[in-house]
Specification:
Layout: E1 12-16, H1 23-30, E2 43-46, H2 53-56, E3 61-66, E4 69-82, E5 90-95, E6 100-106, E7 113-116, H3 137-145
Parallel strand pairs: 1-3
Antiparallel strand pairs: 1-7, 2-5, 3-4, 4-5, 4-6
Amino acid sequence: MEHSVGKSGTIHLIKLCVGAERVEDLTDWQASARAKGPDGLPRHVTRMWPKRADEVLNGGALYWVFKGLVLCRQPILRLDAVDRGDGIARCGIVLDPTVIRVAPTAKRPFQGWRYLAPEDAPRDLPQGREAEEALPQALQNALAEIGVL
């Protein structure tokens, strides 16, 4: 079963991968100690806690947008409270280190993270296609815009 279909009562998150141009930029960052929580798992820290946390934790994933295209997702394992000693409550979205490539899908810019309904989530790439050489960014954008990718 493709994850993007999701279980009943599941919602995903979608977020711009700021500062990254390729999926490899994300995986390189997540391999660094700064991107990991105390348990060694990658996490994304945000100021907003999902109000729909139960649905996010019911098989949800974080879909990453790179330069206008959704290119991959990571299953969300849990949500941790993060205290950086400044009195600001933060949410650590703890991610499975497995990065799953999805069909490139155009997405306009937005701030923060957003909910993504399972029926709107890009489908996973078929087994064996994840390692294919990526098309040039402009071509990916054009194909995604017309719905070919």
